[in-house]
Amino acid sequence: MANQDKKAERWNEAQIRCRLSDEAVKMAKQMGLNPLSLMKNIPNKSQRWKAPVEQWVRDMYEKRNTKRG
User: Fold this and answer.
1) Where are the beta strands (DSSP E) in the chain?
2) CA 4 to chain centre
3) Alpha carbon of 26 to those of 15, 33, 50: distances in Å?
4) Is the predicted pLDDT of residue 52 greater than 80, yes or no?
5) CA 53 to the chain's CA centroid
6) Given phi > 0 = left and psi -120 to 50 = alpha, else beta, which region is 66?
7) What pTM was estimated for this model as a whole?
8) Total of domains in the chain
């Protein structure tokens, strides 16, 4: 039970630090990402080319779930 609490706490921290919506957190979990990987991808001032984490998650989710035709 303590492990689940710790896991939930990490997701809450990632959601706050990365400014993620509940929907983006759900997408990240479905793709098997972990909270640390999200927090590591927060762009800093010298990384203006990097998309915000919310957009990064949504783009990756869309790419993975788009049917190839």
Assistant:
1) none
2) 18
3) 11, 10, 22
4) yes
5) 6
6) beta
7) 0.84
8) 1
Amino acid at 40: K
pLDDT tens digits, residue range 11-49?
999 999 999 999 999 999 999 999 999 999 999 999 999
Q: In a 10 Å sphere around its CB, with 0-12 CB exposed, 13-18 middle and 19+ buried, how is residue 24 labelled? A: buried
In total, the chain counts a number of residues equal to: 69
> CA-to-CA distance for 37 and 56, rounded, in angstroms?
12
20: left (phi over 0), alpha (psi -120 to 50) or beta: beta
pLDDT higher than threshold 80 for residue 67: no
Tokens standing for residue 36: 């640390």
Distance CA 19, CA 26 (A): 14
- Show the domain range for 54: 2-65
